[in-house]
């Protein structure tokens, strides 16, 4: 897959999947615009990605989102690929103990943030007449998970947005797809393990991995490989789709 001189914008770029995707795209010749909440976090994560444009932005703030798109276009002239990846898992709690604050925070970042990114990147891609978008959903967008109703609701919403926007822009030369990972060996999984079994994180990991037919978490680079494929010309007839990348977990589910 050749991304030489293609411009790739990635949100949540300081996190495990985001930075893995950035390195994969860079290895294929892409020009990178990397977005995360913290400039310091971006600089640390992307220290080896010389020439990348680093943008601190809050994906829930529409002015920040407009600015990240404008800065990318000002620097590189266009956006060929958008990896719409920023997200959080929120707090674990049964529904009787969930807070409105947790729901609002998770939905704001995982749903409103995704929608705002699409709104402003799609507008730019329409002027170009081309583009590929990959939204980061989750197997939580396909299944339930006790204690994670806010997160699960948000990722179901991402898949609904993914399908709807793909239909809206199918005639504009823009493709829109989503990836649905299960557990990935990143800091987010450390948080989930702590939320599930505080003080017994290793036991939580063992139980989570044992539930995966392949017997392990995914590596961030494995998710990034799927993102690259969906962004490439090799996926030129794929849009409005979502892909499980779950070590076989979905084979026994809906």
TrEMBL record:
GO molecular function: oxidoreductase activity
Keywords: NAD, Oxidoreductase
InterPro entries membership: KR_dom (IPR057326), NAD(P)-bd_dom_sf (IPR036291), Sc_DH/Rdtase_CS (IPR020904), SDR_fam (IPR002347)
Listed Pfam families: adh_short_C2 (PF13561)
Domain Ketoreductase: 6-173
PROSITE patterns: ADH_SHORT (PS00061)
Similarity field: Belongs to the short-chain dehydrogenases/reductases (SDR) family.
Record-linked NCBIfam families: PRK07231.1 (NF005559)
Protein name as annotated: NAD(P)-dependent dehydrogenase (Short-subunit alcohol dehydrogenase family)
Organism of provenance: Pseudoroseicyclus aestuarii
């Amino acid at each position: 897959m050749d991304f030489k001189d293609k411009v790739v914008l990635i949100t949540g770029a300081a996190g495990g999947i985001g930075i893995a995707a950035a390195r994969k795209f860079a290895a294929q010749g892409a020009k990178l615009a990397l977005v995360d909440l913290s400039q310091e976090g971006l600089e640390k994560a992307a220290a080896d990605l010389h020439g990348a444009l680093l943008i601190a932005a809050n994906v829930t703030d529409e002015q920040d989102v407009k600015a990240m798109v404008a800065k990318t276009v000002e620097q590189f002239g266009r956006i060929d690929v958008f990896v719409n990846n920023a997200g959080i898992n929120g707090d674990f709690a049964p529904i009787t103990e969930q807070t409105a604050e947790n729901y609002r925070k998770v939905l704001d970042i995982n749903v409103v943030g995704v929608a705002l990114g699409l709104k402003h990147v799609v507008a730019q891609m329409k002027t170009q007449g081309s583009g590929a978008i990959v939204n980061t959903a989750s197997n939580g967008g396909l299944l339930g998970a006790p204690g994670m109703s806010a997160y699960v609701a948000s990722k179901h919403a991402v898949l609904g947005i993914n399908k709807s926007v793909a239909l809206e822009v199918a005639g504009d030369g823009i493709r829109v797809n989503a990836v649905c990972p299960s557990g990935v060996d990143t800091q987010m999984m450390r948080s989930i393990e702590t939320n599930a079994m505080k003080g017994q994180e290793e036991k939580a990991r063992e139980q989570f991995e044992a539930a995966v037919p392949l017997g392990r978490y995914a590596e961030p680079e494995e998710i990034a490989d799927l993102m690259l494929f969906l962004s490439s010309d090799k996926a030129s007839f794929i849009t409005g789709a979502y892909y499980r990348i779950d070590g076989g977990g979905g084979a026994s589910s809906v």
